[in-house]
Amino acid sequence: MAVLIRMTIAGKSFIGGNLEITVASNLTANNKLLKDALGTPKFSSENCHFSLVSVKTNLPSSMLPKVLNKFLDNTLQKMLPGLLCPAVDAVLDLVNAKLSAMTSEISLGTAGTLQYALLNQPTTNETFIQLDLKTVLHQKEGDEIDLPTDELPLTSLPPKKEAATQLILSANFLSAELQVMQESFSLDITDNMVLGLPPLVTSMLGTVIPEIAGALPPSQPLVIAMREAKPPLVTITPEAGFVHFFNTAEFLVSPSGSAPESLFVLDVHSDLKARFVVKEEKLCISLVLDSLAEMALASSSIGTFDVLPLKGILANIIHVAYMPSINEALQGGIPLPNLLGIKYQQAEISMSENALVLNVPVAEA
């Protein structure tokens, strides 16, 4: 740190009246950026040096003999370092207080909690500081999500823009965030949720798949229970971002006044196209069904059959009923790291291989 300091010291003159001493000085100090036990970035200073550049007073030069000038210089040389060097520490303490907010535990509503911390010691160069962050995610029961350690090579990412802070969010991190929210993606789909589509009744199934028509109870209402079979997976390329859902879709007969009975269960792999925006300092994700990549019969109480005729109907049902439920669960967004009060609202979002890139313009003073 190299700072040119200009200051005015005012007081009473030894000859009466007001005395003003205008001082220009150079202050230099070495600052270290480390991480503490909690994984918080922390600045410290050492080797603070102070040197006078000039000393001027509002008194005529004839009234300050050389011996008094020398005395004044010596006094300032001894006094000012004790005043100004602690000021460096005070400023760094304020910065550290802001950085400490980064490691605060953040609630993810009913899903769990998120906490950011430093993964490695910070690295610095002439133009920017690089912080490699790790995230600690806990489900509501307190179980920690096992998150792979990401170390994305900088050469694979877009170059950092001038006068901008660049935040890189890996696809693995986003996948883990969705894993915490996994329970929110369960939904029982009933007939009144799929307006404009064929009624969810057993006769509809018999029409689509004639070979099981004789095994179905006639005109009974259906429920499709969508459940996550394994955690969602986020993939990102420079062209697009996708969230892959791996569900079971259980078709149940739900007669009035009776317990539901399972007819069959499908394993369903859905590809959902993702759109990313920043709202209220959180990363928000909205999804739209791109395709049903795979669908297979997992179990059946009415015999085996070809599931392909169901693919179009199930895709429509997922689009109309399931996707709004998922997007509602995602509305809360993902809290972004609190770094010195950076405002992410103006971030320019782009995609790279396996990562989301946020370029945040540095606010002008």
Strand-helix topology:
Elements: E1 2-12, E2 18-35, E3 41-57, H1 66-100, E4 106-107, E5 112-118, E6 123-124, E7 129-130, E8 133-139, E9 164-170, H2 171-180, E10 187-189, H3 202-208, E11 222-236, E12 241-253, E13 261-279, E14 282-300, H4 310-329, E15 334-335, E16 348-352, E17 355-361
Antiparallel strand pairs: 1-2, 2-3, 4-5, 5-8, 6-7, 9-17, 10-11, 11-12, 12-13, 13-14, 14-15, 16-17
Please give a structural write-up.
With 365 residues, the chain is α+β, with helices and mostly antiparallel strands. It folds into 2 domains: 101 residues, Super Roll (Bactericidal permeability-increasing protein, domain 1), CATH 3.15.10; 187 residues, Bactericidal permeability-increasing protein, domain 2, CATH 3.15.20. It is built from 4 helices and 17 strands. The strands form 5 sheets. The protein has a 6-stranded antiparallel β-sheet, covered by helices on one side. A 3-stranded antiparallel β-sheet has the order 1-2-3.
